[in-house]
Amino acid sequence: MADFLLPRHCVVCGRPLGLHERHICLYCDADLPLTRCWTQASHPMADRYNARIQEYLQEEQERLEHYQYAASLFYYSEEAGYREIPQALKYGGQLELGRHFAARLGALLAESPLWADVDWVVPVPLHWLRRWRRGYNQAAVIAGEITRELNRRPGARVQLRTDVLLRRRHTLTQTRMSGPQKRHNVSGAFRARPAASDAPRHILLVDDVFTSGSTLTACHQALRAVFPPPVRISAATLAFVQEE
Ligand SMILES: [Zn+2]
Predict the structure, then answer these.
(1) % of the chain with per-residue pLDDT over 90
(2) How many Cα atoms sit within 13 Å of 30 on the Cβ side?
(3) What is the pLDDT of residues 178-233, one digit of tens each?
């Protein structure tokens, strides 16, 4: 029955899938360009995230902060078929496919000590209008699976918090914008709510794709206004675009 409901072609290359394959064929899965950055504190994605954070702090003449962590499951490029994974989740309504890859990322994060103290997982919110049109927030789908995987560790009590960040305005699609344009587009687009109960120690922000880092940095700024250091605010995405 599931065969009639699930797309039975590889999301990456389009080959018909075998009985035991789900979403992606064995060949494409074996070649999935994993970043392997989830065990490292410092790497190009975290460098870009931290560079954006420091740029903002310098502009605002605020104190610089410690290096924050970031992680992504695989590399994204316009030319490779792997771009279809986040696309199918975001535009194709393929939630099960998104959950499959998000769970893989979550399981890898759960194995690395860098993420051992994550207590809140916060998806980048969509504006309510876009959320209503699409029917779901792809970042929340990914965040839900990551939370589930982190909670498999003994004693873990990680909360999925979709109530902490609010999107104040409808930002424009950023695909064709330059770096400074993107920053201007999303800066101030988010607002964070103070926590009614215990404050978190380590917040993991979640989105689908990390490109310039401007969206995640805008979320970081909004959270920082409510959760000052030493609360750690890390970022995780399914895919990372190496070339900006
Ligand atoms: Zn394939």
Answers:
(1) 76
(2) 3
(3) 666 666 667 778 999 987 778 899 999 999 999 999 999 999 999 999 999 999 99
Q: Can you read off the two tokens belonging to residue 38? A: 């989830």
Evaluate whether the domain defined by 34-241 bears CATH number 3.30.70.
no
Nearest C-alpha neighbor of 235 from the set 213, 214, 206: 206
- Hunting for tokens 């399981």 — which residue is that? 107
Element (H, E) at 175: none
Kindly give the distance from the C-alpha atom of residue 210 to the centroid of ligand 1, in angstroms, as a whole number: 23
Task: Tell how far the Cα of 119 is from the centroid of ligand 1, in angstroms.
Answer: 36
76 C-alpha to ligand 1 centroid (Å)? 16
Residue ranges of the domains in the chain? 34-241
Residue 200 near residue 119 (C-beta atoms within 8 A): yes
Q: Which residues, other chains included, contact 198 with Cβ-Cβ below 8 Å and sequence gap of 6+?
A: none
pTM as predicted: 0.91
